[in-house]
Amino acid sequence: MKKQIVIALAFMIGAFSFAQKKELKAVEKAIKGNNFAQAKSLLTQVESLLGAADEKTKGKYYFLKGKALYANGAGNNADFESAIENFDKAGSNYSTQINEVKASMLQNILTKANTALENKDYASSSKGFEHAYKLSPKDTMYLYFAASTAVNGQDFDNALGMYKELKDLGYTGIAQEFYAYNKELEKEELFGSKQLRDISVKAGTHIKPEDRITKSKRSEIVKNIALIYISQDKNEMAIEAMKDARAENPEDLNLLLAEANVHYKMGHMDTFKELMKEATEMNPTDPELQFNLGVLSYESGDKESAKMYYQKAIDLDPNYINAQINMAALILDGEQAIVDEMNNLGTSAADDRKYDELKEKRQQVYKDAIPYLTSALETDPKNLQAAKTLMNIYSAVGDTDNYKATKERVDAIESGN
């Protein structure tokens, strides 16, 4: 009796195995015919028999299911994710075939992700780059692209998770780039590899080969983690993120400014000012830094510091037009308080005297702004904003000759001459 049971069980297992192979062959045929719906339907039938299957048969099942879900690129995001999961379950028996499909998938996904990015469909683009990373985990730049596009699409929760993973992986984005000068086009070109660049140089079409190292993206990653924490009202976590980053990169000016910005957003103005001072000491000869410090100071309400930084930027670079314009705007910003005070005066003799004093003070505000606007126009003669502001100032101070001359300039700029 026992012998009969054993024989019966063996017969049943053999039947199951035969059914599995038969169904999987039918799945293969459906996939070859691009009938992916039928393939998925047949796979559903095979799934109930999978428990009794050997490892090779299971591997084939997961491989075919992955192909059916991918559907030669026709699958949706959920299908792509499931396809990747099934390929990962397939084991080593079908690694060669799976790698071939994955290479096709990767190219397809990257094309769609880039197209979505060009169309500003950031959600789809981010999801595509995330799938690309799952397909090729060694290419961590895809995860970076996924996080960056998630930020562009205001999907901060997903972006945070990806940025934290990048930070834990130690991702910097530092890469070597290969350049050479194209003699025919008369411009420098970036090559995809050193080999391609060297071949072009050897062929004589290019000269002046040069290798360059890109900047690290770590400070951007850590800064974005902190800023996302702030958007989530997790300010203390933001500060800790910045401290960790600066401990690793104490000379990184961008990180220092990012930390200062975090404290500013949190209302820690004393710490903000200390960090701004530290930034100035770190790089005292950079006019752009001085200008940015001026902008941050103005936004924090410290107008005197803003004036100081703008003036430093101008001293370092007399043609720094943005600093000239901002300095003039900052000076003119003081006019409104004077006007408000004038409007609140009464009709007494004392009020009349105060009015005259304020009127003179207002005129001086205009006069103080003139040199910066004049310099801005010398740097950029077509700057309509500076020209119009200067014209109005000359009108306000009663300088008729300069008003007429500046009005002619405004008319010429507006007419395109």
Describe the structure concisely for a colleague:
By secondary structure, the protein is mainly alpha-helical. Among the domains are: 2-93; 176-213; 318-417, Serine Threonine Protein Phosphatase 5, Tetratricopeptide repeat. 75% of the residues lie in helices and 5% in strands.
Q: Mind telling me which CATH architecture of the domain at 318-417 this is?
A: Alpha Horseshoe
Spatial extent as radius of gyration? 34 Å
Query: Number of DSSP helices?
Result: 20
CATH topology of the domain at 318-417: Serine Threonine Protein Phosphatase 5, Tetratricopeptide repeat
Count the E strands.
Answer: 3
CATH class of the domain at 318-417: Mainly Alpha
- Share in β-strands: under 5%
